[in-house]
Design a protein that fits this description.
Blueprint: E1 5-8, E2 14-18, E3 25-29, E4 32-35, E5 41-45, E6 50-54, E7 57-60, E8 67-69, E9 74-78, E10 127-128, E11 134-135, E12 145-152, E13 158-162, E14 171-175, E15 178-187, E16 195-199, E17 202-205, E18 211-217, E19 220-224, E20 227-230, E21 236-241, E22 246-249, E23 256-259, E24 265-270, E25 275-277, E26 293-294, E27 299-305, E28 309-313, E29 332-333, E30 335-338, E31 342-345, E32 355-359, E33 363-366, E34 374-383, E35 386-389, E36 394-401, E37 406-409, E38 415-418, E39 433-435, E40 438-440, E41 444-447, E42 452-455, E43 467-469, E44 485-489, E45 500-503, E46 507-510, E47 516-518, E48 520-523, E49 526-528, E50 540-543, E51 547-558, E52 569-572, E53 576-586, E54 598-602, E55 612-614, E56 618-620, E57 623-630, E58 633-638, E59 643-650, E60 653-659, E61 670-679, E62 686-690, E63 694-696, E64 705-713, E65 725-727, E66 735-742, E67 745-751, E68 762-771, E69 777-781, E70 785-788, E71 796-804, E72 809-812, E73 816-818, H1 835-865
Parallel strand pairs: 1-4, 2-5, 3-6, 4-7, 5-8, 6-9, 10-13, 11-14, 12-15, 13-16, 14-17, 15-18, 16-19, 17-20, 18-21, 19-22, 20-23, 21-24, 22-25, 23-26, 24-27, 25-28, 27-29, 27-30, 28-31, 30-32, 31-33, 32-34, 33-35, 34-36, 35-37, 36-38, 37-40, 38-41, 39-42, 41-43, 42-44, 43-45, 44-46, 45-48, ...
Antiparallel strand pairs: 54-58, 56-57, 57-58, 59-60, 60-63, 61-62, 61-64, 64-65, 66-67, 67-70, 68-69, 68-71, 71-72, 71-73
Amino acid sequence: MKDSSIVMNALDGTGLWSWRTAAATIDAQRLHIATKGDGSNNVAARTGSRTTVDSGQLYSSGSRSVIAVASASRAYLNGNFIAGGVVLGNKRLTNSWNGSPPETAPSGWPQYLEKADWTSYGRPVDAAGNNVEANVAQYVASSAINNYAVLATGVQDAIRLDRDANDTPNTIHMFGAQDNHALFVEGASPNSGGLITSRGTVITTHSPGSAGGRIKMLGNLLIDGNTITTEKDNAHGLWVTGGPSGTLSTPYNASTIITKGAKSHAMRADAGAQLVFDDSATPHTFLPAATSNVSGAGSAVLNSDGTGTLVRVATAQSLAMSMTAEKQGNINYGALAENGGQITFSEGADSGGTALSANSGGVLYFASATTAPDAAGSRVQLNASQLSIDFTAVRIGSLEGDAASAVSIAGASSHLVVGPDNSAGDGSRMASTIYSGTIQGAGKLTVAAGNRLMLATSGADTHTGVTTIGGSGASKALPTNPTASVLSAGAANAFSASSDYVVLSDGAMDANGLAQTVKSLANAGVVSLPANTNPQPTTVLMSSGAYIGNNGTLVLGTQLAGDGAPSDKLVVGGAITGTTQIDVQNLGGAGAQAPVGILVVQGTSPSPANAFALAHAVAVNGFVYRLQQVGNNWYLQTVAAPTITTATPGNSQAVLTIDPPGNLPTGVTVTGYNMNCTPTTGGAAVTANGASPLTMPGMTNGTTYNCVTTATLSDGTVTPQSNTMQVTPPILTPSITGTVPGDTKGTVTIAPPANLPSGVTVKDYTLTCTPATGAPVTVTGSSPIALTGLTNDVLYTCTAIANLSDGSTSAVSAPASFTPTAKAPATTTPVPVMGPLGGSLMSLFAMVLGAAELRRRKSAKQRVDC
């Protein structure tokens, strides 16, 4: 047939159809074929026949095939292939092998292609350098569905799309209402699945529900260096449905998948289907970083819905899914396995920067292989599903899951590393994640690179491998620091009691106020016991084995009060080694004497003297707490207050003796006391500092003072306040006991104060006598004191002050007065009462004296007269 046109308007029509035997052949040149009805074929070849179209134009606006080839038949297109009515430029389409297929598969092809029949039924395209466009929406109503550009559904059908000699790729565009797929393969049994090989094809789907490549049942699809873009909602790059397995091979060049619609997944497996990344020859990277984008609400890089395997990477194959989510939607999954589906990564698998999720019995499985699978930056979400690790080291970005989920780290050499989490797609970390399911197995668990994981179920973590927290090399940070790698507890005993825990310098173990038990603990970062909200000082962290302090920090909540006050505790069943700083946070304590102490670390064997030290001073209301080792345990103790034992009052002062605290730490001494004495009647206090005995000057005699003191210690701290000692400095007053006036002079006698303190004497007195008129006279000396140069017949009033041996002076005495005079006053001798006899004798004596005096005077008169 040459230069002809065929138009088929009815359903199930065929433009050219060769049938039955190899002798049944159709050769067409410059043929125009248009089929418009559903189920129509442009070209068909069945049962060993052959159809060749050279330089033809093929149009199909129906819902089925462009070319249909049955078993043992051949179809060669040496012209333009057009699906959907768009005429493209003249490009040659040739069979890649220029004749009958080989008996064995070409080098590098999957093993299951050996001795394949290489025939197809459906829509086969065997092309080199052709642009293939399926644009059914242009000629079919918007309700048209289920259209395919390339279809392989027969027994061992083989469809190949390849680049031409100039490396020109094939291009497929899919339009229409919905469910239009560029590449479709199907098979009913392991030996009946079709095969589509697509190398370098550029595929774009423009309708919802479409797929760049769809595998149904046991179909097989080989993707090599393809670019697949889906523009609408519910559209997927690669989609496996309807059966137990589908095989996706990527042997050579990395492919790119971009999804833009809501709930659109780069790869999806439904209803028990599976995608198998299988190439035994060359480790390969699929979906390289920065070229694979997933956006749209509910979109996923990998999505599994059903009971089968979403992704299974076979031995020696490397799968990389380094996705960069555009964050145009609400949910971006790297892998989503649902309803019993399984996601298996192996041999260098990499899903960095994506989110991985499993729901309703789904399984994320990292299989044993030679090269480490890597999902670094991927957010793993489990809902009634399982994450299974069977490899030396597997890295994921973050982990979260409900109570019905499980994580299995099988084998002692298996290792699950959580972090860094880049699944936000913009370089930021996701918020802290919560995992409520079980963790089991002999493998290792690491929370690293700023990841924040909470284990929320008591007793759910039973894995026996080492648990490591941290690993980015950053400096030590508290759990509140956004750069810290944090493993926190959301329930009591959420941490594995069978695991050795290692907290690195940038890591933090956060008990969050909930009791935990671990096998052993090595701390170079932060181990925090208080709850993040409403903390109570009751949390116990038990290390049944050893505790190793690698210059880490232990954060404890303590009620700073008296002996036995409640506190968080570290309990160690094994040896304690290394050094650790204890950061004590006061939880409602008002401070009190605690000489016995508050237990903070409980051991079963002696620990080094420097095993624990306070990270900072711990004091409240003047009570200073120190960390003291007592036997195998460590306590917060207060140093006892000093004791004022005696107070000796003095003149305007007191001397106080003080005993030091009785429980001073080893090597700590008292450097001085700080005394404060307050008058009981009010007024300003007097203070003094120094050693004991301490003299307190500046007191008021006769005033009672309450004195207290603290002690300053050699480590720079100050003790609590001592007992109160009362002291009253006495009033010391001398007294003037006598005055003797003379001619322009006088003598004053002074007695010392009656209540002189012990050991205090009077050195001398200062006497001041003030005349009624004129200047006062002051003389210092010992008693009695003589005054000269006074004015006779002038009254002098005198007071005295005692100058004491302690350098002080007494109060002023009461005044005394005298008057100097020129003549001594007559001295009158009183006559004593002597009774009747005495009176008679005295009268007789007076009479005798009187007679004698009379005779003396008479004799004298006679002498004068003479």
